[in-house]
Specification:
Strands 4, 5, 6, 7, 10 and 11 form a six-stranded mixed β-sheet that branches. Strands 1-2-3 form a three-stranded antiparallel β-sheet, with no helix packed on it. The chain has a two-stranded antiparallel sheet with strand order 8-9. By secondary structure, it is α+β, with helices and mostly antiparallel strands. It starts with 9 loop residues before the first helix and ends with a strand. A hairpin with a 5-residue loop joins β8 and β9. α1 crosses α3 and α2 runs antiparallel to α3.
Length: 255
């Protein structure tokens, strides 16, 4: 994911920017950035926001910078400087732009009231909702109170290899890859009435505590780059074991 810019074509740069940003221009919190502030904002994005997993702040800031560069035009000295330095082509920035719309989509779905049908309510007040989206995907939403700290929630996600000790239906779990303190790939499974099942999930955290929440986003993956950087598909599941596919997993934690 992420946009690639041409080092020789300013028109290509502008067109690709607009196409890549179209899905996030509806975010009302994208800042209006002065063209002269663009280099310092991009520096803050790469040195502070991205290392702290602040993907929403990073996406908004990058989008604001792109809007400023686009408005200034290719002959502007700041535009020429940014294009020459290639910051917008870096893996960090393109990766942030890939994650940013996913966070907005997750927030929109979690905040959505219409379409959800109450399935059941637990004795502690936990509510389980269900919904089919326009693509026929079945969604489940659980609202409830978790007693603990944000650190506790993050630890549960990060230590996927301990799921078999925490959840009754999970009989085994294993960490497959740890990309960072907030991003992992792990597998878990257990027994069900018709046999055995397993899931392989990639998950990553979104730090947005300055607005009172953080997100954990994830979903099933078929493979992952190995230590050599080459993408490799995971082996097929064991005999008589069904591999479940989780399209999207979104966890919103509001301390």
């Amino acid at each position: 994911g992420g946009q690639k810019t041409s080092s020789t074509g300013e028109e290509s740069f502008s067109a690709r920017d607009r196409a890549r940003s179209r899905s996030v221009l509806s975010d009302p919190k994208v800042p209006v950035i002065d063209i002269n502030d663009v280099p310092s904002v991009l520096e803050k994005v790469t040195e502070e926001m991205i290392p702290e997993f602040k993907w929403i702040d990073a996406g908004r800031s990058i989008t604001g910078c792109k809007n400023a560069l686009d408005a200034a035009g290719p002959q502007n000295s700041v535009v020429k400087r940014v294009m020459k330095e290639g910051v917008l082509e870096s893996f960090e920035v393109t990766d942030a732009l890939r994650r940013y719309p996913k966070t907005l989509k997750a927030l929109s779905l979690l905040d959505k009231d219409d379409g959800w049908k109450l399935y059941k309510q637990g004795p502690t007040g936990t509510k389980v909702y269900s919904m089919y989206d326009d693509k026929g995907h079945f969604w489940i939403k659980v609202d409830g109170i978790f007693k603990g700290t944000p650190t506790t929630c993050t630890s549960i996600w990060k230590e996927g290899d301990l799921f078999d000790q925490w959840f009754p239906s999970v009989t085994w779990s294993k960490m497959l890859k740890k990309e960072s303190d907030a991003e992992i790939v792990f597998t878990y499974g257990g027994n069900n009435p018709v046999g055995k099942s397993e899931s392989i999930l990639h998950g990553w955290g979104v730090n947005h505590l300055q607005e009172g929440f953080f997100l954990i986003l994830g979903g099933s993956v078929k493979g992952w780059p190995g230590e050599d950087g080459e993408y490799k598909e995971f082996p097929k599941p064991p005999f008589r074991t069904m591999r479940n596919w989780v399209h999207d997993l979104s966890i919103l934690v509001e301390p």
